């Protein structure tokens, strides 16, 4: 199977606009306050809870919480933060963005999310991935030379635990523990744990996701959304060839909403630039300029602008991919909590209804 050509509109699934789902993602970036002072890691985590409470109030469907183990991101345990959010919210679904399964124990991951599901009355989801950062591997004693093999094996075990939900599991692997008729508690109370696999653009990863019969979450951090359409199509074709039921596609991209396009770009640019410089310096990326930023906002995946501008960008992406869900990655670098709160408010009250209308048209 290959991802060489974009699907035609006739090939794409058609969703009732009322069925489309909209979420936010956050990595718990350590931010500055409006006076330019650095906020503590602890306060950054408390701010994420407040952002989730607001998202729930304005009708956002879900929140994904990232896992990192470094100075610029406050959250190392997404499930703990999600559990705190569960006690303060009513409807919003609670997921990771992502859980780095390669450097974790699939049994413990399943236990934590099944516990979160119980606490939240069935609102837990998990998004599994290999992670674009690798600091968790030496931290937990894993060899980066096993990067691919660790995820392959641990995903297979996790899927078996999910599918057996409350029934004994036997298992033997190379990078994982041996299980002999083990039952994992607590079981999911109703159905199975909603489980996505996050993919950054590898055809092999897309096919592996389909082989396990799981929905696909495309992590888009730059470039036009439409260039990922072949991966969404590959996922659908692979599911069909494996004889498995259709599964949804979702995607996330960076974004920020303000009253006007210029205000949104002015608020977003410097935090985006600082984050790009910090991470790019570690990875050998080229420098970022305002011109590069403007190009990404106008022609790439970044959904930055007024509610109308952001809604048009999201609607176009949803249509290009045949996606059922979109997540706006609201936290970016040191962008202040107060501005994140305003962005979430506008996203829930104005952007989401506009996207539904645009997709219906």
Q: Please summarize the sheet with the most strands.
A: 10 strands, parallel
Indicate the CATH architecture. Answer: Alpha-Beta Barrel
Can you tell me the CATH superfamily?
A: Luciferase-like domain
- Count of distinct structural domains: 1
Low-confidence stretches: none
Share of residues in strands: 15-25%
Order of helices and strands: EHEHEEHEHHEEEHEHEHHEHEH
- CATH-derived topology: TIM Barrel
Number of helices: 11
What's the topology here?
Layout: E1 21-26, H1 41-57, E2 62-65, H2 78-86, E3 93-96, E4 99-100, H3 106-119, E5 125-129, H4 136-139, H5 147-164, E6 169-171, E7 179-182, E8 194-199, H6 203-211, E9 216-219, H7 229-241, E10 249-257, H8 261-283, H9 290-299, E11 303-305, H10 307-321, E12 325-329, H11 337-360
Parallel strand pairs: 1-2, 1-12, 2-3, 4-5, 5-8, 8-9, 9-10, 10-11, 10-12
Antiparallel strand pairs: 6-7
Brief account:
By secondary structure, the protein is α/β, with parallel strands linked by helices. The protein is built from eleven helices and twelve strands. The mean pLDDT is 95.
What does the model show?
The mean pLDDT is 95. With 361 residues, the protein is of the alpha/beta class. The chain is built from eleven helices and twelve strands. The protein has a single domain (20-337), classed as TIM Barrel (Alpha-Beta Barrel). Helix 2 (78-86) links the parallel strand 2 (62-65) and strand 3. The chain is 43% helix and 15% strand. The longest helix is centred in the C-terminal third of the chain and has 24 residues, at 337-360. Strands 1, 2, 3, 4, 5, 8, 9, 10, 11 and 12 form a ten-stranded parallel sheet that branches. It has a two-stranded antiparallel sheet with strand order 6-7. Helix 1 crosses helix 2 (78-86) and helix 1 packs parallel to helix 11 (337-360).
């Amino acid at each position: 199977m290959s991802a060489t050509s974009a699907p035609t509109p006739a090939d794409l699934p058609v969703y009732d606009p009322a069925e489309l789902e909209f979420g936010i993602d956050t990595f718990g970036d350590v931010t500055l306050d409006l006076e330019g002072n650095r906020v503590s890691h602890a306060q950054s985590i408390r701010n994420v809870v407040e952002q989730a409470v607001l998202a729930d109030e304005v009708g956002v469907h879900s929140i994904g919480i990232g896992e990192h183990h470094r100075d610029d991101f406050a959250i190392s345990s997404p499930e703990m933060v999600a559990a705190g959010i569960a006690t303060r919210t009513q409807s919003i679904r609670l997921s990771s963005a992502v859980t780095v399964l390669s450097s974790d124990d699939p049994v413990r991951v399943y236990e934590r999310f099944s516990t979160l599901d119980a606490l939240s009355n069935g609102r837990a989801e998990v998004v599994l991935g290999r992670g674009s950062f690798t600091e968790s591997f030496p931290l937990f004693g894993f060899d980066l030379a096993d990067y691919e093999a660790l995820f392959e094996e641990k995903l297979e075990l996790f899927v078996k635990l999910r599918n057996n939900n409350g029934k004994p599991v036997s298992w033997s692997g190379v990078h994982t523990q041996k299980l002999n008729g083990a039952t994992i508690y607590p079981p999911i109370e109703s159905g199975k744990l909603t489980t996505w696999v996050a993919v950054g653009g590898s055809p092999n990863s897309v096919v592996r996701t389909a082989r396990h019969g799981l929905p696909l979450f495309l992590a888009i951090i730059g470039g036009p959304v439409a260039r990922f359409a072949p991966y969404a199509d590959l996922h659908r074709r692979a599911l069909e060839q494996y004889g498995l039921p259709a599964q949804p596609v979702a995607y996330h991209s960076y974004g920020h909403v303000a009253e006007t396009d210029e205000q949104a770009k002015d608020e977003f640019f410097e935090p985006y630039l600082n984050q790009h410089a910090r991470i790019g310096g570690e990875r050998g990326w080229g420098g970022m300029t305002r011109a590069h930023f403007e190009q990404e906002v106008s022609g790439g995946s970044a959904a930055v602008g007024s509610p109308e501008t952001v809604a048009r960008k999201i609607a176009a992406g949803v249509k290009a991919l045949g996606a059922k869900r979109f997540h706006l990655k609201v936290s970016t670098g040191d962008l202040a909590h107060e501005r994140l709160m305003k962005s979430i408010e506008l996203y829930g009250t104005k952007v989401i209804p506009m996207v539904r209308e645009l997709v219906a048209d």
